[in-house]
C-alpha cells in the first residue's frame, strides 16, 4: 500500500497531529503510536507525536461528505471516539459533489477543518501531511484492501 496523507488544519502542526489521530480513530478506530519528535516526509517543521490522552477536552472539526447510508455509522464511530478520548467532534456534512470545492474554499480562507474526508488527495497536494511518521507505516493495514484496489 502507498502512503496516504491527511489534510492539514487551522491548528498548529502539533494540533494537527492530534486531529489526524482523531480522524483515523473516528473513521477507522485506528490508534496513535506515541513517541518522540519527527518531521513529515515532505519536509517542514518538526511535529511532535502525541499521546491520545492529550485529546481530552479538545474539540475537533470534521468535514465529511455523504450521499448515502454511511452517515449513521460515522456518527456512531464518532460517539464512541468522543467517549473513549473525552473529546467533542463537530461534524459538518456536505454532499459528495461539494466536498472538493468546500474544502478548497476553507483551506484558502484559513478555516481548515481538523479532519476532512476526501475522495481524492490530488486537489489538496499542498495541504497534506503523511501520517506514517505519527502512526507508523503499519496503520494502513487497518484499512480494508478494497479501499486501495
Which tags fit this structure?
149 residues; alpha/beta; SBP; 7 strands; two-stranded antiparallel sheet; disordered N terminus; single chain; signal; 21% strand; Extracellular solute-binding protein; 3-stranded parallel β-sheet; TAT_signal
Helix/strand layout:
Layout: E1 5-7, H1 13-28, E2 37-40, E3 43-48, E4 59-65, H2 70-85, E5 88-94, H3 99-108, E6 115-116, E7 128-130, H4 132-135
Helix pairs in contact: 1-2
Summary, kept brief:
The protein is of the alpha/beta class.
What can you tell me about this protein's structure?
The protein has 149 residues and is an alpha/beta fold. It has one domain (5-147). Helices cover 31% and strands 21% of the residues. The protein is built from 4 helices and 7 strands; from the N terminus they run βαβββαβαββα. The protein has a 3-stranded parallel sheet. Helix 1 packs across helix 2. The longest helix is centred in the first third of the chain and has 16 residues, at 13-28. Residues 1-19 and 21-40 have low confidence and may be disordered. This is Extracellular solute-binding protein. It comes from Brachybacterium epidermidis.
